[in-house]
Amino acid sequence: MRRPDPRSWIVLFAALAIVLAAPQWGKAQTVRSGAGATAGSITPTRDLFRTDLGGGIVAGANGLFGGLRREINWDGVPDAQSSPNAFTANFFNTTSPRGAVFSTPGTGFQVSATPGVAPVEFDNINPSYSATFGVFSSPKLFTPIGSNITDVNFFVPGTNTATLTRGFGAVFTDVDLANTSSITLFDSANASLGTFFVPNLIGSETFSFLGISFVNPVISRARIVTGNVPLGGTTLDANGDLNDLVVMDDFIYAEPVPEPSSVVLTAIGLGGLALAYARSRRRKKE
User: Fold this and answer.
1) CB neighbours (10 Å) of residue 242?
2) Count of structural domains, the chain
3) Considering only CA atoms, which of 61, 63, 66, 33 is closest in space to residue 50?
């Protein structure tokens, strides 16, 4: 029986590279969104998004530290990293490695305080905020400071290696205005994959969920816009008129995986090894 020519591996790896680099790689998308007056009203939508990503509808070990998806609910962030203290932007890629690093054009981030330790739900910034925002998973929330923009970049958890994910979603509280709060997704070339608006419901302590997933991993960065003004000592929410203050709770995203370019380079490298091996075998026979 004739053995396959090792050079055929080169063709296989080249074909793989073409597939991974195809312009339509992972363009199909599924959007899950909903809003309601209680945390329970958006839970079915959140669970549909969990199902889209895989790993069951509960967080568990899969949802936090590896598997098909990752989740961040902020509640385990220590007091030293919670309000009124600043939250370290790479906490969830170093201290608790989940492959997410945050940035903002503002001055930083805060995770709201533990009850009994400091004012809760950002009352440390403005005492009206605990009556403005609701808590989806108790007791903590998340917000940028000095801006209403948060960027989430994805990495191989615990490393500086940039990655892609195939889905990202978040829980929001107190989204009053339509077409204002949003998630914009970007690919590895920083090209937009689309802007998706968070559903709104006028009132205080309401909840919204928005999650977008693709067939394949294409998301390098998620930009989140929360309301139309940042939190501030004299800034009040206006329940659908003028100021719309919004903060976030749970983040859910698919397991970060290496960028296709990395896979292609690996394939090319393996193809080179296969060719070198074939040449070595021929020399020995000669």
Assistant:
1) 12
2) 1
3) 63
- Token representation of residue 118: 């400091």
| Whether 131 contacts 120, CB under 8 Å | no
Q: What is the pTM of this model?
A: 0.82
d(C-alpha 144, C-alpha 99), whole Å: 19
**Domain extent for 201:** 28-255
DSSP string, 42-107: HHHHHHHHHHHHSS-SS-HHHHHHSSSEEEE-STT--GGGSTTSPPPTTGGGTTS-SSEEEE-SSS
* Domain CATH number, residue 77: 2.60.120
Residues 198 and 46: their CA atoms lie apart, in Å, by 13
CA nearest neighbour of 176 among 234, 132, 129: 132
Q: Is 177 a domain residue?
A: yes
Evaluate whether residue 171 is within a structural domain: yes
Residue 157: left if φ>0, alpha if ψ -120 to 50, beta else—which one?
beta
Residue 286 lies in a domain: no
C-beta of residue 269 within 8 angstroms of C-beta of residue 116? no
Domain-located, residue 127: yes
Give pLDDT tens digits along the chain (286 positions). Answer: 455 555 554 444 444 444 444 444 446 799 999 999 999 999 999 999 999 999 877 765 544 555 789 999 999 999 999 999 999 999 999 999 999 999 999 999 999 999 999 999 999 999 999 999 999 999 999 999 999 999 999 999 999 999 999 999 999 999 999 999 999 999 999 999 999 999 999 999 999 999 999 999 999 999 999 999 999 999 999 876 689 999 999 999 999 988 765 444 444 454 554 455 455 555 555 5
